[in-house]
Design a protein that fits this description.
The protein is α/β, with parallel strands linked by helices. It is built from eleven helices and twelve strands. Helix 3 crosses helix 4, helix 3 packs parallel to helix 5 and helix 5 packs parallel to helix 6.
Length: about 325
């Protein structure tokens, strides 16, 4: 479905009193394929480029470099009709259900707006479709007459999901869709997303910093650090044996349900470096417990390893794994 080749997104910024120009490298040289019917999770700390990558996939921002193809077609070389089809096929579920719904619109208009824009239904047919969608996401049809402020966070997120589904998309990009919700409500929304994926054959790009949520949702995981993908792996393999030191440190920081289980990896220390002034060589080397002199000089490339796994780390050049 999606095929990204050497995709970067840079932002020029002013820095210092003399307004010196600098580049903020939010996404850097990302190669990534997203397959039909899978859930690809993108994980990493705040500032690693996850949300910028989501905006690139949604065609909300153009890449500074590289090519993004959807169903074989370059997103930024498409004609108007192709862009319109893309807008219908790829939809967004937002992080904040309190800010992503127009407070001046009734739920019926929020959910039905996409149908109006794409001319999918009018009048009674649109009303019936809105009520059907509300039932599918676990809400009563009576919700349609209300305004967003009348509902809880979980209900608002269900409304947001119904809005995304209204145009029958094939891909949902979900940017931290449960991070603003209570833990008990998170489980309900995650189960809903899993049910919808199964029933509709959806493809998900699931952006998250919560590795417990990702373990439940994902088929594959892309681990990002300072704009780059440093590990790409089937979810089960990543959780069993993470390859990149950053991925190991992220998993070490996840609280274990069994207190007798002790992580063998050291948790992360220090902060993510500034994307305005990234370290030379491997960007993770200032925080890496396995850093070698080569890591300061050379940027490792994301390289395919055994069992559908890729990692960007010099450790594996040494061992040949």
């Amino acid at each position: 479905m999606f095929d990204l080749r050497a995709v970067s997104r840079h932002y020029p910024v002013s820095e210092g009193g003399l307004a010196r120009r600098a580049l903020l490298r939010a996404v850097e040289s990302v190669d990534l394929a997203i397959h039909r019917g899978e859930t690809l999770a993108v994980v990493g700390e705040s500032g690693c480029g996850k949300s910028t990558l989501a905006r690139l996939l949604l065609r909300l921002e153009p890449p500074t470099q590289g090519i993004i193809r959807y169903e074989g077609e370059d997103l930024w070389q498409s004609d108007r009709a192709a862009v319109r089809r893309f807008r219908r096929q790829v939809q967004m579920v937002f992080q904040d259900p309190y800010a992503s719904l127009n407070p001046r619109m009734r739920v019926s208009s929020i959910v039905g707006e996409g149908m109006a824009i794409h001319r999918l239904a009018t009048g009674v047919a649109r009303r019936d479709r809105v009520e059907e969608l509300l039932r599918q996401v676990g809400l009563s049809p009576e919700v349609a007459t209300g305004y967003p402020h009348q509902f809880s966070g979980g209900q608002r997120q269900r409304i947001g999901i119904a809005r995304a589904l209204a145009v029958d998309p094939t891909v949902l990009v979900a940017d931290e869709p449960v991070s603003a919700l209570d833990v008990s409500v998170q489980a309900q929304i995650l189960n809903l997303l899993q049910d919808l994926k199964r029933d509709r054959g959806l493809t998900y790009v699931f952006i998250s910093h919560d590795l417990r949520v990702v373990e439940y949702m994902a088929d594959r995981v892309a681990v990002m650090y300072l704009g780059r993908v440093v590990e790409l792996s089937p979810a089960a393999a990543l959780y069993e044996e993470p390859l990149h030191p950053y991925a190991r440190a992220l998993l070490a920081a996840v609280p274990a349900a069994d207190p007798a289980r002790r992580s063998v990896s050291r948790p992360l220390e220090g902060d993510v470096p500034s994307p305005l002034d990234p370290p030379s060589g491997c960007a993770f080397h200032p925080r890496c417990s396995e850093m070698m002199p080569r890591c300061r000089r050379e940027q490792p490339e994301l390289t395919h390893r055994a069992r559908d796994r890729s990692v960007a780390c010099h450790l594996y050049d040494l061992c040949g794994a």
